[in-house]
Amino acid sequence: MKKVESKKIEKLKSINWEExxxxxxxxxxxxxxxxxxxxxxxxSQQLTPEIISNxxxxxxxxxxxxxxKEGLDWLQTLLSHKRAMLYFVQPSxxxxxxxxxxxxxxxxxxxxxxxxxxxSEIKGESAEDTIRTFSSYADIIIMRHFEEGMAEKxxxxxxxxxxxxxxxxxxxxxxxxxxxALLDLYTLDISFAERGGINNKTIVMVGDLxxxxxxxxxxxxxxxxxxxxxxxxxxxxxxxxxxIKVFLKKHKIPFKESAxxxxxxxxxxxxxxxxxxxxxxxxxxxxxxxxxxxxLNQKHLKLLKKDAIIMHPLPRRQxxxxxxxxxxxxxxxxxxxxxxWIRAALIAYLFGIEDKILNI
Length: 360
Ligand code: CP
Prior knowledge:
By secondary structure, the protein is α/β, with parallel strands linked by helices. The chain has two domains: 2-176 and 338-353, Rossmann fold (3-Layer(aba) Sandwich), CATH 3.40.50.1370; 178-336, Aspartate/ornithine carbamoyltransferase (Rossmann fold). It is built from 14 helices and eleven strands. It has helices spanning 3-14, 17-22, 49-65, 69-78, 94-105, 127-137, 150-158, 178-191, 213-221, 242-250, 261-265, 298-301, 332-350, 354-358; strands at 33-34, 37-38, 83-88, 109-113, 140-145, 166-172, 202-206, 229-233, 255-258, 270-273, 309-311. A five-stranded parallel sheet has the order 9-8-7-10-11. It has a four-stranded parallel sheet with strand order 4-3-5-6, sandwiched between helices. The chain has a two-stranded antiparallel ribbon with strand order 1-2. Helix 9 links the parallel strand 7 and strand 8 (229-233). Helix 8 crosses helix 9. The longest helix has 19 residues, at 332-350. The protein is globular. The relative contact order is 0.14. Bound molecules: phosphoric acid mono(formamide)ester. Phosphoric acid mono(formamide)ester (CP) binds next to helix 5.
């Protein structure tokens, strides 16, 4: 590493958490790298076209190899000497199980804590000490936390100790969910493989855009493509945050906001539905919002292009009619399975073994 970079990292190590957290992301991205590679996966903004393409290739290869028992047996030898800690103290089904499955595919041994009520946090231990404790036993921590910034704080803290281990952010409050964005991107890439890829596509994101971390992370990630247009469709109160708009303007990504789902659907190459995130309500404000205007049901299908795709990070409520599941354009069940492969690829990358997989 260049001397200047090294000095910057030392400076970042010396400041306290409040100062570190306030530091603009671009000025601290290197803190989460080692030897020119990602060490922690915390934000979509860390992912470059080169890393994304490496991860897609690795995911495709893992998926192919794992089809045969001998292949899966071989994959399971690759990280059989490593242990993963799954610290998921905010509810999850698919992120948790897909990461757990991804670890099994690569042979990692997995430990889990799924609630602060079953860890020593119930006795008053801080999240910081809890996470530090995991680093005594595990080689990687995959975490979901209700508090924004906690994954970053874990990485900030562990990168200063003698035995640093990688952190993967599996969802941090309303903030980010970068591996969901990665699996969304992987699904878009597969779906548009025969239509020139993700470049030049129009993506319509619908729902609670203010508090939906998957939408935020995917918006950041789409900067890696050319000619992408974004249409954000939401109730007035749940419009996409200003920081995303600033980012899109900076990266010259055209976007518009609308409250008209039907009109927007006609333009879509991909529709990305999301549920209302009322777990983040402060005073039950969601109950006054008419979300039915942002529900996708069978009557909308005729408005969509024949080759458009329908996505949803799931879980869903009424915003995505179950009747749509049978439409060939519905990709959300594949999307969640894609999550397992791309998460396996990410783990392989963080342990630096992706070449073993790619070169076999
Ligand atoms: N998409 C997603 O994060 O789902 P879970 O909350 O079930 O993990």
